[in-house]
Specification:
By secondary structure, the protein is of the alpha/beta class. The chain has 2 domains: 153 residues, Rossmann fold (3-Layer(aba) Sandwich), CATH 3.40.50; 55 residues. Helices cover 33% and strands 27% of the residues. The protein is built from 7 helices and 9 strands; from the N terminus they run βββαββαααβαβαββα. A 6-stranded mixed β-sheet has the order 5-6-7-3-8-9, sandwiched between helices. The radius of gyration is 18 Å and the shape is globular.
């Protein structure tokens, strides 16, 4: 399988303290992975190191994706521009279809301060998808959304993925969110943060928010992360 991303021995340190160290990852085209760990463990730092927003302290990031979509934790929208003009900054494609898919039809002329937090985050996602990315990075992209809206977005993302076959990295502290849109989950912990375990999601056709397989996998992930929380970094 052709790859869009190679990470080799990646490490990031701030003021002499290692946040991440010894990370290795290969991401194939159309492959989807989830990074799951507690708040503050370095998930966002990893995404920023991939994109150059944070310089790695050691190691290499080799990216072959020509188009990158990045959804930040907080919407990075231009406050004085309406939704349509915010989208026009990244693409001259007609945005009506993606706005409709994400439940923003009729909001084209609203400015960010006239939208709810959930609407702003959906616009943030629309902007990333409008670039037709080879690699989509989602950093806690669903934290401001209610369950009903999340489920609709997961369905739309899965449908878009089937058509466009982009690679995806989703960062979250919510295992169930990751289980619904990623195929391989990396559980994080330790100090410096490292990958402690890899979990495969159930087949896509058998995934739903309340399916027994997803509920069971979520419980096992939470149990594992709880068992290693506070563990001495030298253990395991």
């Amino acid at each position: 399988m052709a790859s869009v991303l190679h990470v080799r021995n990646l490490g990031v340190a701030f003021r002499g303290r290692w946040v991440l160290r010894g990370w290795n990852l290969t991401l194939g085209r159309a492959e989807r992975i989830g990074l799951i760990g507690p708040s503050g463990c370095g998930k966002t730092t990893f995404l920023r190191a991939l994109t150059g927003l944070v310089p790695p302290s050691e190691g290499d990031v080799l990216m072959s994706a020509s188009r990158l979509g990045y959804v930040f934790q907080e919407p990075r929208l231009i406050p004085w521009l309406d939704a349509r003009r915010n989208l026009s900054l990244v693409s001259d494609r007609e945005p009506a279809d993606i706005l409709t898919r994400l439940g923003l039809s009729g909001a084209e002329r609203l400015r960010p301060h006239e939208m709810s937090g959930g609407m702003r985050q959906r616009l943030n996602l629309a902007r990333a998808l409008l670039t037709d990315p080879d690699l989509l990075l989602l950093d806690e992209a669903f934290s401001a959304l209610d369950v009903a809206l999340k489920l609709r977005l997961f369905e739309d993302l899965n449908a878009l993925w089937r058509c466009r076959r982009f690679a995806l990295i989703v960062v979250t502290h919510n295992p169930r969110d990751a289980l619904l849109i990623a195929d391989r989950l990396l559980l994080l912990g330790g100090e410096p943060t490292r990958v402690l375990r890899e979990v495969l999601a159930p087949p896509l056709a058998r995934r739903s928010y309340f399916s027994p397989e997803v509920v069971k996998a979520e419980a096992e992930i939470l149990s594992f992360l709880s068992s290693v929380a506070g563990q001495d970094p030298s253990e395991g």
